[in-house]
Amino acid sequence: MSQLHISVIGAGNMGCLYGANLARAGLRVTFIDPWAEHVEAIRSRGFRMEGLHGSFVVSAEASMTGAGVSGVDVAIDSA
Question: The domain that contains 39 carries what CATH number?
Answer without folding.
Answer: 3.40.50.720
